[in-house]
Write a structure and sequence with these properties.
The structure holds two protein chains of two kinds.
Chain A: E1 2-9, H1 14-27, E2 31-36, E3 46-54, E4 69-72, H2 77-80, E5 92-96, H3 105-108, E6 112-116, H4 118-124, H5 136-145, H6 152-162, H7 167-180, E7 182-183, H8 185-191
Chain B: E1 2-6, H1 7-17, E2 22-25, H2 32-43, E3 50-53, H3 57-69, E4 74-78, H4 80-85, H5 87-95, E5 101-106, H6 120-123, E6 131-134, H7 138-155, E7 159-164, E8 172-176, H8 180-186, H9 210-242, E9 249-252, E10 259-263, H10 267-280, E11 285-290, E12 292-294, H11 298-305, E13 310-315, H12 325-334, E14 344-349, H13 359-370, E15 379-381
Parallel strand pairs in B: 2-3, 2-4, 4-5, 5-7, 6-7, 10-11, 10-13, 13-14, 14-15
Antiparallel strand pairs in B: 1-8, 6-12, 9-11
The chains are: A alpha/beta, B alpha/beta.
């Protein structure tokens, strides 16, 4: 079983990101379980969502405290909250950031770090507003490029099926992000 | 067709497949998504039902009772304080023998104000005469919603479907949606045994004097007694059509076990994984899941637990001043067993107000029961900071 945790801010589509990734993995024949941090959401406030994926039916019905991988939809959260709490060493940390992954020196020695400027990509495809782009579909495209988690085509199909508006713009953002993701040099070593 | 959906939408889908005719509800977290989805289904024509907006849960249940009395298939959903506000009308539904179906998303009662899961809301309605069915997965939620209507309309009792807040209500997982044609065979349009009909007038809710009130209560009790067999028959037919059934109770890896957990709701699921792991290393533990709380499956539980040496009941609820409610009910059901067959029953109160119940918590409980210390309290509170 693989467990993922999503960090974002209310309004970025964090919970939907977890749900769309679950849909994508379900299309690949996997068992999935997607849920938000159980609480009250407010626009702009930190939001967490979770995903379990396995080849067997998933029976754990409790929170995820030691995720295998992280997807961070807002780079300001890296300093604002303890995003890596409980994260298993060697796991992916995918960050929506215009900075290169090497800049996240506090993370690169223990985790496989990758970055993608999902905000810029989402804005270019007209998703959300300039000040509040909806970055969830772009970051999922980048996630597919990490290898070993999900296929890009499954993500695109899931987006078409579950995103209510601008499906093709969202798919295009996912594809662009998949091509634009940057891996820290060490990430490739760890990955090999 | 399989679809990844949250538990709340599994309820909505169940109600839609059941072709409910009247929905009346008032929003409350964590239930709101159930009726939100149903209102969209009504608005875009996928469901030909009348959606009645009301000013409170009390009115929602009153509207469902009125609709049901007129012969319609009526549905509502609520949680916690909303269910508490319905309390008077819950009695009215059972006394009037109106087969309304209600989905309650378990949520803790306030104060302390809390939106997370806790079974005390539904269990507080124990004596209202509603059938209560607890669910473990989103698939079970959808299936139980459809079956609830068939059951309710057969015995003329209202049925409450119960599911955990967030662990089911807001958790998305794959759910198989049966074809409408299959459900239509299983659950035809309601034929009310009695209804408001100007051409065949009857009195509803009239004064009943001491010479007949007890008989009405007895009839309810008889209907509850019949519910055991009717539920089994309903499930058998559902299994024939869909391949799925759940049982009023379910024994899991219970054979040869010297310790059985008794669970309900989503804790069951996590406990199954704990049991599998312990079985791998030769630990003879199992569990009994209780799906049906009313009518209480006394005979089935006696058969399942007779002769087992230790039983640990996991209660995500509490009757303050006594103990966990499933534990109380189970002790009373097992009391008449011969002393040699009667298990030691230790109750554990845990997970209140949505506190997480992890495999480690369940492991600690199993280890504690294995120590066979004298039972000093009927309610051991797990992980509480006094």
């Amino acid at each position: 079983m693989r467990e993922l945790r999503f960090h974002g801010r209310g309004g970025q589509g964090t919970v939907v990101a977890s749900k769309v990734l679950a849909d994508a993995l379900f299309r690949e024949g996997r068992e999935v379980q997607s849920f938000p941090a159980f609480g009250v959401e407010r626009r702009g406030a930190p939001v967490t969502a979770f995903l379990r994926v396995d080849d067997q039916p998933i029976r754990l019905r409790c929170e995820i405290t030691e995720p295998d991988d992280l997807i961070v939809l807002d780079s300001t959260l890296v300093d604002a909250v303890d995003v890596t709490a409980g994260l298993r060493p060697g796991g992916w940390v995918l960050i929506n950031s215009h900075r290169p992954p090497e800049d996240y020196t506090a993370l690169t020695d223990r985790y496989r770090v990758a970055t993608v400027d999902a905000s810029r990509i989402a804005t270019r495809h007209g998703l959300g507003s300039k000040t509040q782009p909806i970055v969830n579909t772009a970051i999922l495209g980048a996630c597919a490029a990490l290898g070993g988690i999900v296929r890009l085509e499954s993500v695109c199909d899931a987006i078409r099926d579950s995103v209510p508006l601008h499906q093709e713009e969202n798919v295009a953002a996912a594809r662009e992000a998949a091509a634009a993701v940057r891996l820290a040099p060490q990430a490739e070593v760890l990955h090999a | 067709m399989k679809k990844v959906m949250v538990g709340n939408h599994a309820v909505s889908w169940g109600a839609r497949l059941a072709r409910v005719e009247v929905i009346s509800a008032y929003p409350i977290t964590p239930q709101t998504q159930v009726v939100e989805e149903l209102s969209e289904m009504c608005a875009d024509g996928r469901l030909a039902a009348r959606f009645i907006k009301v000013e409170s849960e009390h009115s929602a249940m009153a509207a469902c009772i009125g609709a049901s009395a007129a012969g319609a298939r009526a549905f509502t959903a609520t949680s916690s304080q909303g269910l508490a506000l319905m309390h008077e009308m819950l009695h009215w539904a059972t006394g009037g023998r109106h087969p309304v179906v209600l989905a309650n998303i378990n949520r803790a009662l306030g104060p302390g104000w809390n939106i997370w899961t806790d079974q005390t809301d539904s269990l507080s309605q124990r004596d209202t005469g509603w059938v209560q069915l607890y669910c473990e997965t989103n698939q079970e939620v959808l299936d139980t919603t459809v079956m609830a209507f068939r059951l309710a309309e057969t015995v003329d009792l209202p049925v409450m479907i119960v599911l955990d807040a967030f662990y089911l209500s807001h958790t998305a997982e794959p759910v198989d949606i049966p074809d409408q044609e299959v459900v239509d065979v299983f659950l035809p349009t309601r034929e009310a045994h009695r209804k408001l009909d100007v051409n065949d007038p009857h009195a509803f809710g009239a004064l009943v004097r001491p010479d007949s009130y007890m008989e009405m209560r007895w009839q309810q009790q008889e209907a509850m007694d019949r519910t055991h067999d009717v539920f089994e028959a309903v499930e058998r037919e559902w299994q024939r059509l869909t391949g799925r059934r759940y049982g009023a109770i379910e024994s899991y890896r219970a054979r040869d076990a010297d310790l059985l957990l008794v669970t309900s709701g989503t804790i069951t699921s996590t406990a199954r994984s704990v049991i599998d792991r312990r079985r791998e290393r030769g630990d003879a533990v199992g569990l009994v899941k209780v799906k049906m709380f009313r009518p209480f499956p006394t005979a089935a539980l006696r058969a399942a637990l007779s002769g087992v040496s230790r039983v640990a009941v996991l209660d995500r609820n509490v009757s303050v001043g006594h103990a966990g409610i499933f534990a109380e009910e189970l002790r009373s059901a097992l009391y008449d067993l011969p002393p040699d067959d009667r298990p030691r029953v230790q109750g554990f109160v845990l997970g209140l107000g949505g506190r997480d119940v992890t495999p480690a918590v369940i492991d600690r409980i199993i280890d504690a029961v294995r120590e066979d210390r004298p039972i000093e309290r009927e309610d051991l509170w797990v992980g509480v900071n006094p």
